[in-house]
Amino acid sequence: DYRINNRSSLSDFDISFEREFGECDELRRQELGCYFTAAHWGSGWVFDKTKFNPISYSNFKPNYDVLYEAPVSETGVTDFEMGVKLNYRARFGTVLPSALFSVYGSAGSSTNSSTVKQRIRIDWNHPLFEAEAHVTLQSLSNNDLCLDVYGENGDKTVAGGSVNGWSCHGSWNQV
């Protein structure tokens, strides 16, 4: 089971997924506190290795959808920064021998994290963000053919030019 922590604000979207698993639950067994006793000839493992199995994370796929709304009159560019942070921890155990038995318990942990960030730039002047309905046309005979507008008499700045099929190159005069 995972707990979802939502620390979002008006300008930041910040959620995290944490596995709900207490430190004492990781021990092989538990007595009155966060420890257990065993004979000196015990196996020596403080933590239950079966609880640290990658299978418990194999089907965990955190995902979310974010919708941003901008006014139709928005122009210029907007930069978004998206990131993923992974926190991980190494557990340490201790075995304290006594006259009759050994006491097994947790001896702390070491944590670290890794962050990956990606910057996304939105160009609001791109035709994709115009306030009109877009039409997608697909050629059945050519995979790489787009509609291309040349302009009047070869001048691309003049309206009213012819529309032809042309190899797709991603310029603003193509659909």
UniProtKB/TrEMBL annotation:
Entries under PROSITE patterns matching the protein: RICIN_B_LECTIN
SUPFAM superfamilies: Ricin B-like lectins (SSF50370)
Annotated InterPro entries: Ricin_B-like_lectins
Protein's recorded name: Hemolysin A
